[in-house]
Hints:
2 copies of one chain form a homodimer. Chain A has helices at residues 9-33, 43-55, 60-67, 71-83, 105-126, 131-146; strands spanning 58-59, 87-91, 99-103. The first copy, chain A, is mainly alpha-helical. Chain A has a 3-stranded antiparallel beta sheet with strand order 1-3-2. In chain A, strand 2 (87-91) and strand 3 (99-103) form a beta hairpin. The first copy, chain A, is globular and about 55 Å long. In chain A, 28% of the residues are buried. Chains A and B meet through helix 1, helix 2, helix 5 and helix 6 of A and helix 1, helix 2, helix 5 and helix 6 of B. The structure holds a DNA duplex (30 and 30 nucleotides).
Amino acid sequence: MPTHYQGSPREIQALDTFIKLTRATDSLLSRLAHRNTHPGLTTSQFGVLEALYHLGPLCQSVLGEKLLKSGGNITMVIDNLEKSGLVQRVRSTEDRRFITVSLTEKGRELIERIFPGHVQAITEEMSCLSSDEQQELGKLCRKLGKGG
Amino acid sequence: MPTHYQGSPREIQALDTFIKLTRATDSLLSRLAHRNTHPGLTTSQFGVLEALYHLGPLCQSVLGEKLLKSGGNITMVIDNLEKSGLVQRVRSTEDRRFITVSLTEKGRELIERIFPGHVQAITEEMSCLSSDEQQELGKLCRKLGKGG
DNA sequence: TGATATTATTTCAATATTGAACGATTGTAA
DNA sequence: TTACAATCGTTCAATATTGAAATAATATCA
């Protein structure tokens, strides 16, 4: 999307880079979504299962931090995963404010089964970049992600 | 988020790069959202106004392509912008399937007023990367966005 | 011309997402 | 200890988002 914005060269470059970044990410996520790499799960649900799979049981607030989502959102996504029998809630006995969310057997079995296909799809979609380019992209994103 | 995934080196690198990319973008967008650079507008609404401002009047399907959103979504976002009096719908007379969406005076005045602040916020958030780094990031994103 | 396919938009159900308000619980400090 | 502050999760209203089904209009082709 061209912008024609009359700003300083620094602003124009920042805006141009920002647009390329967000469009590339949107486009990549959209292509991945259409591969149906996690059938029967929404992207958010898949993200929660993946986090619990790799990090172990987590309370909802930590889950929200990891996934960069609000508390209200986590409550709803966990609700739906719980209805599907993929995760379980256990209220902590030491501090009764916390609820620990963990995978059920069904949830673990599911994420273990579909995760390899997910990785393969990502690998294919990233294959337009060489190994060196991926390395460089990762480095720049790491720097940008931490913020100014 | 560490993954501990036992895949080929190629898969591990792709997954690592993918995670860094999506987290950097999420984090950047989240930081921008908290700057309240488009008060009273959602991010989607701002995106529509911005597109119409830079590209001129567009029909809804083209708007959906530009913004990478579904038709149903565009209908709702335009509905809300129309209620706010920021855009107007006009059904095409040549081909009555099309609806042209354009900015109202109020909409144009608004986007003209808030766009500079939006650009400034982006410039500040991107300032952790040098000009050369932004150039490089843009190039890599451009390549990735087009897909494998 | 008439049947069929394509395209643009709307509608709907389900889920996501946020921010604010709220209740429950725990920590803190006078 | 008692008031106050902070934290965790839920609820709610509004909007977003998708995909599928439905409608309307146009294009194509036999």
